[in-house]
Amino acid sequence: MSFLELDQVSVAFGPAGNRTEVLSDLNLKVAENEFVAVIGFSGSGKSTLINTLSGLEPPSTGEVRMAGRRVTGPGPDRGLMFQNYSLLPWLSVNENVALAVRTAFPRLSKAEVADKVAHYVRMVKLDHAGDKKPHELSGGMRQRASLARTLSLDPQVLLLDEPLSALDALTRSELQDQILNIWETDRRTVVMITNDVDEAVLMADRIIPLTMGPGATLAEEFAVNMARPRDRHTLNDHPEYMRLKSEITSFMMHLNKESKELTAGKVVPMPDIRPRDFSLPSATPRLKPRAQHPTSAA
Amino acid sequence: MQFRNTILLAAIGIGSLHAEQLDVEKDELKFGFIKLTDCAPIVIAKEKGFFEEEGLQVEVIAQPNWKQLLDNVITGELDGAHMLSGQPIAATIGFGTKAHIVTPYTLDLNGNGITVSNAIWEQMQENDESLDTPTPEHPISADSLKPIVEEAKEDGKKLPMGMVFPVSTHNYEIRYWLAASDIHPGMYTSTDLKGFTDGDIELSTTPPPQMPATLESGKNVAYCVGEPWNQQAVAKGIGVPVTTNYDIWKNNPEKVFGVTRDWADENPNTLIAVTKALIKAGKWLDAEEDGKLVNREEACRILSQPNYVGADFDVIKNSMTGYFYFQKTDKRAMPDFNVFFKYQSSYPYYSDGVWFLTQMRRWGQITEPKPASWYHEVAKEVYLPEVYMAAAEHLIEEGFLEEDEVPAADFDGYKPATDEFIDGISYDGRKPIDYLNSHKIGNKDDASLASK
Amino acid sequence: MADSSIKDKIKYALLKGIDVSGFKVLDPPVRLAFGEEPQKQVRDIAKYMVLPILFVLACLGIWTVMGPNHKTKSGEVPTPAKILTAYEDNKRFDERQEEKASDFIVEGAEREATLAEAEAELARLEAEAARLGELSDEIAAAAKEQMDARIAPLRSELESLKAKHGELEDQREAEMTALAGKVAEKQAEPAELVAMVREHEKIEDAEGATEDVIESRIDEILANPPEEVKEAQMAANRVADEVQHYKKRIAILTNENRNVKEAEYLEKIAKDEAELAAATEPKKVIREAKSIARNAERAESATTQTYPRTATIFWQTKRSLATVFVGFLIAAALAIPIGIMCGLNRIVMACLTPIISIFRPVSPVVWLLIFQIIIGAFFPDPEKHPLFVSLNQDKWFGWLPNPVAFLQTNPAMIFSACTVAMCALWPALVNTALGVSSIDKDHMNVAKVLRLGFWSRLFKIVIPSSLPLVFAGLRISLGVGWMVLIAAEALSSSDGLGKFVWDEYQNGSSQSFANIILACFVVGIIGFFLDRIMIFLQRLVSFDDGSATA
């Protein structure tokens, strides 16, 4: 029985007559408490996919269903963790989490909210930095804060949009472990977008490649049949791991090549497939350049 | 005439109380003034405590320009102000801002001068050899200016000149001076409110403090203004005063103290008290001993304070102590350059009002011909000799004034006819239409209006 | 160890304060005081403190040297020293108002003591004034003699030149007559005569020019009496002004003092009461009773009177600050909500864009004139209008001292404030709209995922996120408002620095330029501090690392 379902979903942007289909004919079924990783190249429409799942981006055709019901918009039951953290910079870590808690559980008293906040902040090991503002934190800490906020919604589905791609390798593995830990102790449905094969194999139950856009679709899946908990130190020697990794990698390389050949033949200019509304700012702190705006407004 | 009755009643009611403060309706007042030395009576009445003696606390506030001053009086921001003689009349008949303004007191006589730039002065000297001395004979008419004006006109230019305000004495004086030498200063019409029509020159409004600067920059080649701005031109060496308004019309009325009619109606006793204080100040300013004006130096000292006129003491002193510098080397005695009180000058004469009305008609500010009776009516609406006389009576009773220092009680408010003008034309305030028709340049009206 | 940690705490508190307030320049001295990398700090101090100070001093030096040599006939550029003197004079002027105000209310023995003091001072000052007056006359006479001595040779040169030119002219005249005779007799060509006329005109012009040179040299000497004459005159004038002031003080202390007046009225009442007791006629009784009532009223009103002070630059400054503050508040109160609406809703933005575009470039002067009509209509009788009555009464509800009574609020102030508001509105509005419309889409996505309602979205996301830009806009607004205010005050005769400048300009005295430049510094320095305050606030609401450009 699938818990989260994409049924013939296509997403297109642009005015009628010049529409660019970013995703076409996607079908995906995620079972309850399953950990699914979607792997793809940058620009293939991964973020669009996760936005569609979260309800931020309604599909042009087809349907997104959760627990059998059609998804019409975003909501706290699908906790979305953004690629670039999206913490509110004027609030401290605790306040960011508290904002989520208060909206997800509006009936809680002040003390209960504080307890819940403390709980999730402790869960991601940020209790020492609860009063800090996002700009005072490192990238990893920010992502943990973002995770705490997402978890605090107590969502039925966790949607992780390349959560670790902006981090350095060490922080990355540390966070992978942490996410896995949390997932192991408190299982729930997870869809994670990633561009890292190692990460996908380490964390997911199933890995589904996304073909190159435009008109990207989901390719055949790879099941990860490895026991949990998986130990990253011994994993490298695991034959299944080796096999999956090389298979997926070669599949992806092939995809890439195919796509290049395709575009080379067609002479279609590469459309700006990133929708304006969801353009992802660079990972550098985005407020600095803004401080200079005022002079231009004078 | 409800107002006149109140005044009369007030006069009778208080008359029996000897040397007693009037029962003023309002004791904290704000008066406005423009930074010109002829605001002296108001400033002196405050600084020498004459207002205090009448139980009045007065604030004296500098105003940026005549228009704003009038507006502030009309809106009630100010209780009263130092005004150009033409202002109450023009406001009452509705030329410019319309409001009924009245005046019980003439602040001073004379006090203006016409200054020309150095270049024009040199050309005037060329045209009239007799001017080419350090001390030319006065009065200097505009005759020697006429060829310059005509030459400029042939070149397609009209010489630019400056005056202070469309209804100021300065405007009428410089027009009179020019017209007396057959230079047409331009007419006002219902569509030309700048008064350029048919003019040989262009006479425009310039704020007094800017006069010397405009002369220096060539924006004006001549101007008519009050003190200290003629003496400034001499002190700075940028122009030569050629005549004073004393020479244009001997002892002409200059500024008045004005309040709105409504204010006067509401505060009849206050108005008398203010007039009393102003008379005292005027008398103090004109006090003489052995032919010397004994208080003028102190007055200059007070006026030179930055919150009053604020010009340098020496510059103010130049004109106010009975002398006038026509050039740096030409200092002449002008004992009557500023008259504040003597010659019964502070009385508000109807004939003065009529003269200003004739000038407004002459230059087209009054566009319609009016019968003689209209001139007298307007003068009586604006000038309040009864207030002045009520104040004077108190002062006589208090022993502050002699009876001969003010006109007799049965005086009708018209000065005797005089021909002491630069062109020798006789003026009789009782005959405005005849006077109007005796000028060569300017509007003339049907003689039949004289008897209407 | 504890000691050093406290020291560190103080140090970091200081550094943080410096950082937030934006006075980065004070950073090295503080670090130096705590012994941190002394060499680097000394270098920094030299670079960022000593050099700028030297530069400013150099500018002052250039100003001092160039000023007196740079002049028009209307005056010369006053030196920094003269501006300092102007400041001193203004301070003295302010003190005089204080003295007079206190003389007005002082009572009893204290009044008599003050009077005695003032009289003694007056006597001293009069002697001093006489001495300085004589001295100044002497110096002026000496200078005149000296000038005359310099002028005399020029004069005689001019005379002889004129005489010579007169002779030459006579000669030319004779030549011309001779030639004219010949022409008349047809012995010479008329053209020859015309040529001669032209020639003569040229010569005359040349002669006139040489005369002019000498005349202008005479004028030059007359126009520039030696500096010491002016100085002596000014010194004498200063003391004479002081004499005048003391005379007025004595007049206040003896006659105008409110307690003296009260005593006078009380005395009159006593006299009237005696007469009332002795009176038999009913009419006379009534008259005396009325007189008593009137005098009692006057005596009572005398006790609460205060001396009507004259505006000084210090008071004008306070009033300007109050006006700009009111105007700024109005601007902020309009700009922020409208800006938020514009930023949130494209239709509102589209509706307001033409209005904003058309009105934004309009000059403050125009606004002032328009507001005089529009706002003026609300206050037909300002003195009785409840707004002004309540703003200007001494006490609120009869007991609470009114902190704004000293401002003497009037319609002119409101016009100026509205003009400030109208001009200061735009930067704040545009920046607010920009701030709201350029909210990070991710933050909006967060709001969507959390399913925040309109109001919590507004207050939790929109406003906090646009605050830095809003404050940046407000900062520009305040700067614009302060600049505009001076012009508005000058034009509307609303008391404030603008009026001070305009009055000084109208005074046209030898001190006027110095006072105007003094006002320029006052305006500049206050503007600087206002800007600093806004930067400080802007930093407080900034949520980034505080590196907002200063």
Alpha-carbon distance between the termini of chain A? 59 Å
How many domain modules of chain A? 2
Greatest chain-chain contact: B-C, 53 and 52 residues
The assigned CATH architecture of the largest domain in chain A is: 3-Layer(aba) Sandwich
Largest sheet of chain A: 6 strands, mixed
Radius of gyration of chain B equals 21 Å
Report the uncertain regions of chain A.
277-298
- The tally of structural domains of chain B comes to 2
Structural class of chain B: alpha/beta
CATH topology of the largest domain in chain B: D-Maltodextrin-Binding Protein, domain 2
| Binned strand content of chain A | 15-25%
Oligomer: heterotrimer
**Radius of gyration of chain A, whole Å:** 20 Å
Mean pLDDT over the residues of chain A: 82
Helix percentage range of chain A: 25-40%
- Average pLDDT of chain B works out at 88
Identify the overall geometry of chain A: globular
Class from secondary-structure proportions of chain A: alpha/beta
Structure notes:
The complex is a heterotrimer of chains A (298), B (452) and C (550). Chain A is an alpha/beta fold and 298 residues long. Chain A has two domains: 219 residues, 3-Layer(aba) Sandwich (Rossmann fold); 77 residues, no CATH class. Chain A has ten helices and ten strands. In chain A, the strands form two sheets. A six-stranded mixed β-sheet of chain A has the order 6-7-8-3-9-10, sandwiched between helices. In chain A, strands 2-1-4-5 form a four-stranded antiparallel β-sheet, covered by helices on one side. Chain A is globular and about 60 Å long. The N and C termini of chain A lie far apart (59 Å). With 452 residues, chain B is of the alpha/beta class. Helices cover 39% and strands 17% of the residues of chain B. In chain B, strands 2-1-3-10-4-15 form a six-stranded mixed β-sheet, sandwiched between helices. In chain B, α1 runs parallel beside α18, α5 packs across α17 and α14 packs antiparallel against α15. With 550 residues, chain C is mainly α. Chain C folds into four domains: 54 residues; 131 residues, no CATH class; 60 residues; 229 residues, MetI-like fold. In chain C, 81% of the residues lie in helices and 1% in strands. Chain C has 18 helices and four strands. In chain C, strands 1-2 form a two-stranded antiparallel sheet. In chain C, a hairpin with a 3-residue loop joins β3 and β4. In chain C, α16 packs antiparallel against α18. Classes of the chains: A alpha/beta (298), B alpha/beta (452), C mainly alpha (550). The interface between B and C is large, with 53 and 52 residues.
